[in-house]
Amino acid sequence: MMHVLPKLRSSGWAYPTAILCFYGFFANCRVAEPFLTPYLIGPYKNISSEVVTNYLFPIWTYSYLAILFPVFLLTDLLRYKPIIIVQGLFLVTNYVLLCFAPGLPAMAFLQVNYAVVTSTEVAYFSYIYSMIPPEKYQRATGYLRGAMLTGYTFGASLGQLLISVAGVDYFYINAITLGIVSVAFLVSFWLPMPQRGVFFKGNRAVTGHSQPQRAQGVGMKGAGDQAVVVTSHGEKDQSGGLCARDDIIHAGRQLWRSFRESYSSRQVICWSLWWALATAGYNMVFNYVQLMWDHIEPSSTSSVYNGAVEAVCTLVGAAAAFSAGHVKVTWTVWGELALGMFSSVGAGAVFLMGLTSSIWACYAGYVIFKASYMLLITITTFQIASNLSMECYALTFGINTFVALCLQTILTAIVVDEKVLGLDIVTQFIVYGSYYGAISVVFLTRGVYTASTHARCPGQTDTKEPEPEPSVDILYADERF
What we know:
The chain is mostly helical. It has helices spanning 4-11, 14-28, 36-41, 49-77, 81-100, 104-119, 122-129, 137-164, 170-188, 245-262, 266-296, 306-324, 331-355, 359-385, 390-416, 425-456, 470-473, and strands spanning 218-223, 226-231, 236-238. Helices cover 69% and strands 3% of the residues.
């Protein structure tokens, strides 16, 4: 058994996948996350809900926007593992601040700290693509996504049980979460170091044989008169540095080629547009829904079921996302209409959340909203990914996420920030419902046009539908997990 482990560590796909799954489970098992708002406005932090809404939470959005793009480039340049370690470290710091740092300035710094955590999530999935052969991508992705969803669901359920059954205080819930994410931080050091990135290759090949010869155990990549030898044990002998000028130029050209290839298709542009618009609105609802719940049913005087609701949302949303890949629909014809119809369902759910005085109706609206989003983002992800290479796949999703964050920042600056409108939470949700309503009108109109064009001239829209891949179905089902 002992002689098998080194071989598994160096050349097998199971070891890095298993370690990354363990990391994903513990990093997302944040028992206290569904109860963040009650903790901040409760006796431990004693911050008013208005300050949390209009001052604290916008800091996270602005910081996330500032950090995301540099982290995206550094993730590939530094080859993923250091970024995952950084995420684990900042997760630990996040809950150290929540547990032990008093005062509003500390909580403002907490938002910047958490922006680093969310911006480094790109490394989680990107890492495995640099470590395993392409034929294992689908299986590994399914395992990683399953680990994240399991961790999130288990954490939310555990938090609800500790609060509702055991009567545990919010402070101790955060202390328990600190211990769990500390395990994730330690696990991150066990990850093997990738030998290459997607764009930054270390030393680029001048011939077509740039990939290591996995079957023979040894590969060689040349860059002019420089060479890199990669053995089956992960050892490397190179005469050029990772940040060599030629490599940076090559990475820049590869990024530009991938960008042009990704957005040369009108179909990809259309799906990407929905991705960016809808994700921005989804993130606004996700960020401020706890404040809406506290507005309807104050946590200081009522029982809180945030954890149970989040657990149910995750399960329902995951089921909806998984089912998307098994529905036989010609998405090139009916996809835009589906985007418009389900966006209108999401708009109605947000309006329900903003206008109801019943906490249970608000919970139900949130479950419907989140499930519809996870269903649609899964369809969108698969449609975009099905015809893209790995480089384009990663870059397109990164750009779409960045555009969504830009839109989210604009919404935050205008609607939420106390320096501009600083709207109350109910008015905010009416705005978010109207925003989703506008998205539904745009895509319903586009969908009706596409469907009618197909009815008149079937040949213009008929294309071969890609076979559904279950692991892709759950890959980006929810951007916040």
